[in-house]
Amino acid sequence: MPWWAGKDEIKEYLKEVNKNGKVNRSSHFPIASLANMFVQVLEYCLFQPGLFLNYLGTPNKTSRYLTPLNTFVDFQNRRGIVVDGHDPIITLTTVQDLAAVVAKAVDFEGEWPIVGGMRGNSIAVSKILEIGERVRGGPFTVDVVKMEDLEAGNLTASWKLEASHPSVSGGEATKMMKTVLVGMLLSSAKGAWEVSDEWNQLLPEFKFTEIEDFLRNVWEKKL
Asked: Is residue 148 left, alpha or beta, with left meaning phi > 0 and alpha meaning psi from -120 to 50?
């Protein structure tokens, strides 16, 4: 998705900075040498939480600093969009759990992994829809779209994303929402939203929020 191009640029920059190795925070160097070393070498982690679970609570605001946005599973209107022949696994993590893991990482005494995946929940789209029907107390209407249509930029579903975002002007919103939805469907079908579990392994005591518990807390008064 084009608005994430900056993330790739930063990733490539950090890769270049560290091409000759990286300093471990517990290592000891003379002050002058350490200062010079950090000009060239920087320990970093690419925190990867998958998709924010909070988005399945839209339009309810479940975090102070996260703007509610729709996805291809719309709990409010009991509907979903799936790609024909695909039932991908998606990692869903609350933004609160992401913040907690990052805070723990700051104090973590070991070396950071470059790829820092965290799995709040890894779950098939079909299972998300099943949970939705239980939590929302009724069946979901599901549209099926074809991969070839999505790859051509065509969205054949009966509905589209309608949420707005403060960073996007009104004139750009409609086009962007289509791009977001097509991009999410394509990337999920290709496995891009199933992330690794490096931080789950490094912080085994940390308990991530379960998807059904979170959604029941959000929607229990909305049935």
From this structure: alpha
All domains in the chain, ordered by first residue? 11-17+27-219 (3.90.25.10)
Q: What is the pLDDT of residues 95-138, one digit of tens each?
A: 999 999 999 999 999 999 999 999 999 999 999 999 999 999 99
Q: Which helix (H) or strand (E) holds 129?
A: helix 125-136
With tokens 């000759």, the residue in question is 20
Copy the structure tokens of residue 219: 């929607």
Of 135, 121, 8, which is closest to residue 60 (Cα–Cα)?
135
Nearest alpha-carbon partner for 47 in 88, 103, 122:
103
For residues 54 and 71, what is the distance between their CA atoms, to the nearest angstrom? 11
Report pLDDT for 41.
76
